[in-house]
Amino acid sequence: MMSLRFHFYFLVLFVSIVIPTQCLGEICLPKEHVALFIFGDSLVDVGNNNYINTTTDYQGNVWPFGESFFKYPTGRASDGRLIPDFIAEYANLPLIPPYLLHPGYNRYIDGANFASGGAGALDETRRGLVINLNTQLNYFKNMETMLRQKLGEKEAKTLLVKAVYLISIGNSDYFVPYYPNSTVLQYSAQEELVNMVIGNLTTVIKEIYKIGGRKFAFLGLPPLGCFPLMRALKQGNTSACMEDITTLVKLHNKALSEVLPKLQSELKGFKYSIADLYTLFSERIDNPSKYGFTEGKIACCGSGPFRGIPSCGGRSSVQEYELCENASDHVFFDSAHPTEKAYQQFAELIWSGTPDVIGPYNLKALFKA
Ligand SMILES: *[C@@H]1O[C@H](CO)[C@@H](O)[C@H](O)[C@H]1NC(C)=O
Ligand SMILES: *[C@@H]1O[C@H](CO)[C@@H](O)[C@H](O)[C@H]1NC(C)=O
Ligand SMILES: *[C@@H]1O[C@H](CO)[C@@H](O)[C@H](O)[C@H]1NC(C)=O
Ligand SMILES: *[C@@H]1O[C@H](CO)[C@@H](O)[C@H](O)[C@H]1NC(C)=O
Ligand SMILES: *[C@@H]1O[C@H](CO)[C@@H](O)[C@H](O)[C@H]1NC(C)=O
């Protein structure tokens, strides 16, 4: 008994010496605690769209979404966890819930997720059906007000300055013009569309910076033209990727990689990471077996060519859909989103990978920076 108690006190003493803590208001956390704030589209939406008035096309809250990990649909557009779920785990944070689950939720110590499936950097991308990037920024500002009230000015600022801001945006802005009967393709030049998207994104980055954000992580755009959705929409030789959208994606990725160093020289303390999802996806689509998949081009869930018709779960006008045996065999879960297994591979590389896939910082380094 004595010796047990001795060990207990010893342990408490040991822990308090080794792990310095920092108190934010009444809450004390390990000093290295870093929050994660998430903005963007369906690649990072963990369920915000469950709480808005939209069509089922932009929600992942029907079976078989979620089948592999959660065993029930959560609103994530995959069979399981997404990149931010894995990053939170690697950073010793709990799963970051959708902001709209508890808009008045009083902690936000670990971060918040504002992303919305289908959202773009342009307000007009699926206007009225999604939470666009500007509205996500407004939610972030509301949260910041609550955080200051809860923690105090200085502590809230400390948390926001140390935090990592993970952003996935642009996919929807470039998808939409290719939908049948889209009214969006009114830009005379592809450069014009890309410049607007990058311009809107830059405005949002600067706003987050003004509030305290310093450490930004961006998901570069994947090869959207090779997604099952785009292959299915394509006329003619459907085994090829859709080149027009690939051009846009490449223009966007180039513009993003040029604007971020500029922001770094303009904004004191600004640090960033870009994940090369283009390469990470392409490698797996072209060489699935090298990465433990049996199928790189056809989705697990959906209908039509490449299961590229977004009918997974019977959500859209097409009620019938096919579902593969084991999602882990596929790179894509539905017409436009990878499986948890693919996301896990991406997340591991984004966390601790080398500059050929994530740089200038990987996320492990960005969290510590
Ligand atoms: C949701 O949208 C539908 C169709 O657009 C509309 O009829 C309904 O009134 C909306 N509901 C709310 C709560 O806004
Ligand atoms: C974002 O893009 C839209 C076009 O959809 C434009 O009207 C809006 O002013 C832009 N917002 C910002 C903050 O640049
Ligand atoms: C597109 O427009 C054509 C002709 O106006 C119409 O027949 C078709 O149903 C529309 N498709 C969609 C997906 O709305
Ligand atoms: C279709 O596209 C694939 C992939 O780009 C190419 O290998 C094939 O030769 C094309 N087939 C035809 C008939 O053009
Ligand atoms: C699915 O495949 C993976 C390997 O790719 C395997 O580890 C897993 O057990 C399989 N799941 C089921 C339900 O068969």
TrEMBL record:
Name this polypeptide is given: Uncharacterized protein
Database matches in Pfam families: Lipase_GDSL
Molecular function as annotated in GO: lipase activity
InterPro entries: GDSL, GLIP1-5/GLL25, SGNH_hydro_sf, SGNH_plant_lipase-like
Residues annotated as signal peptide: 1-25
Keywords: Signal
Entry's family note: Belongs to the 'GDSL' lipolytic enzyme family.
Taxonomic superkingdom: Eukaryota
